[in-house]
Design brief:
There is one protein chain. This protein has 243 residues and is an alpha+beta fold. It folds into two domains: 1-145, no CATH class; 159-243, no CATH class. The protein is built from seven helices and eleven strands. It has helices spanning 16-31, 57-74, 94-99, 121-124, 128-139, 163-167, 217-232; strands spanning 2-8, 41-42, 52-53, 86-89, 104-108, 113-118, 147-156, 159-162, 179-182, 196-200, 203-207. α1 packs across α2 (57-74). The longest helix has 18 residues, at 57-74. The radius of gyration is 18 Å and the shape is globular.
């Protein structure tokens, strides 16, 4: 099972140095969860490039600047948005990268998103659900986060199935997936479909179902029911502002 945990927050216009500091804050939150998330490297651009340790601020800053300049050359108008951010992993060698789940941490200040992806999480952590919940809780400790969702991908009967593409309720609205966060307080009476609710900051952490097995129709239906109720509560973001 592959998971991608994504947090939404207001878009920011940052320069490369500010983007580096922004990423450092997210790393600090993740590091509080597990030792695997204490050390990070900038993902190499190609097979002949070497990973750059995030702690090497000068080298990482140079990597961000190069990536920004390349993006601006391709999309000149994007310069007004500020830095595009960076992509990090918690494995400095290919062996460590694979052992720790081929993790990618994507920090995109200009689009207001931070995403953490872990490949085959059940092969890395004994309790995947508790690990993702802890990571969700750590990331959503940032008071700027307005919404969070967890996508799940799994191989079922030889086919790669993705919750957001194959199982979510609304094509015109965001999804919550396995677990997520809304920046409003909720009670069990308001959202009885969810397996668990926990107050967190000014909002609520939501566990849609204990285990999101995409081959389990009951589990998928429970997540769908949670999303449908969030839509009724006007807490499921529209993908286009006009909706």
């Amino acid at each position: 099972m592959n998971i991608t945990l994504t947090c939404s927050l207001p878009a920011m216009h940052l320069d490369a140095a500010e983007a580096y500091q922004e990423a450092a804050g997210w790393i600090d939150r993740l590091a509080s969860v597990h030792p695997h998330f204490e050390e990070w490297w900038v993902l190499p651009d190609g097979p002949n490039d070497h990973p750059v340790g995030f702690r090497d601020a000068a080298a990482t800053l140079l990597s961000i600047q190069k990536a920004d300049e390349s993006f601006y050359r391709e999309y000149p108008g994007a310069h007004a948005l500020g830095s595009t951010g960076l992509v990090l992993t918690n494995g400095g060698t290919e062996r460590l990268w694979k052992e720790r789940g081929k993790v990618a941490l994507v920090v995109q200040p200009a689009s207001g998103e931070v995403a953490l992806a872990i490949y085959r999480i059940e092969a890395v952590y004994q309790s995947p659900g508790q690990m993702v919940w802890s990571l969700l809780k750590a990331l959503c400790s940032d008071p700027r986060v307005t919404y969070a969702r967890t996508n799940v991908q799994a191989l079922i009967a030889g086919r790669l199935v993705t919750y957001s593409v194959d199982c979510s309720v609304y094509p015109h609205r965001d999804f919550l997936g396995w677990m997520g966060y809304v920046d409003k307080p909720l009670s069990a009476d308001q959202l009885p479909q969810a397996a668990r609710l926990e107050g967190h900051g000014r909002g609520t952490l939501i566990l849609s179902t204990e285990v999101l097995d995409l081959a389990d129709h009951a589990a998928v239906e429970q997540v769908n029911g949670t999303e449908a109720r969030l839509d009724e509560l006007d807490l499921l973001p529209a993908l286009t502002p006009s909706i």
